[in-house]
Write a structure and sequence with these properties.
- It is a single chain.
- The protein is of the alpha+beta class.
- It has two domains: 1-27, no CATH class; 61-148, no CATH class.
- 33% of the residues lie in helices and 17% in strands.
- The protein is built from four helices and seven strands.
- The protein has helices at residues 2-8, 32-41, 65-82, 135-148; strands at 10-11, 23-24, 50-53, 56-59, 86-90, 106-110, 126-128.
- It has a three-stranded antiparallel β-sheet with strand order 5-6-7, with helices on one face.
- Strand 3 (50-53) and strand 4 form a beta hairpin.
- The longest helix has 18 residues, at 65-82.
- The chain is globular and about 60 Å long.
- The termini are far apart.
Length: 149
């Protein structure tokens, strides 16, 4: 029965219920290329904040005043600490692997902004995620993603 398959996410080898082996539905992972094309095509609403994490398009949390202040102060301090030869980027994409293009609150990357005119940086020396409501997700999911880069 189709409705049962949809509600449980399971179907048999031939798409019907029965005594055969059951399998679960597979989610499609989006590549960075897919994601970039969606952005260019205007698939997302203006101002909608999303990022690509391990092939999944994830909505980003709203930015409250305290969060924005912490991001600005962090970026300012890192500009002073790192100086010339480094670009301190706020809320800009990192092209970390085939399936991830996160937008950390602050990232320190080698070079200058002009170095990334045609492509996002693929690595960062330091990444800062300011978290108040998403601390566990930022630390676990995104933290391991940044560590792999």
């Amino acid at each position: 029965m189709l409705s049962d398959e949809v509600s449980t996410g399971r179907a048999t080898k031939h798409g019907r219920r029965g005594s055969g082996t059951m399998s679960t539905a597979q989610l499609r992972r989006w590549s960075r290329s897919d994601y970039d094309k969606m952005m260019e095509a205007g698939i997302f609403a203006p101002g909608e904040r999303v990022e690509l994490i391990d092939g999944e398009i994830v909505e980003m949390s709203p930015q409250h005043s305290a969060h924005s202040t912490a991001v600005s102060l962090s970026a300012e301090a890192l500009c002073t600490a790192f100086g010339a030869g480094f670009d301190v980027r706020t809320r800009m994409p990192l092209a970390l692997d085939l399936y991830s293009e996160p937008e950390p609150d602050v990232a320190v990357v080698p070079g200058s902004p002009r170095d990334y005119r045609d492509a996002h940086p693929t690595t960062a020396l330091l990444v800062v995620e300011v978290a108040d409501s998403t601390e566990a997700y930022d630390r676990d999911q995104k933290g391991s993603l940044y560590a792999r880069a």
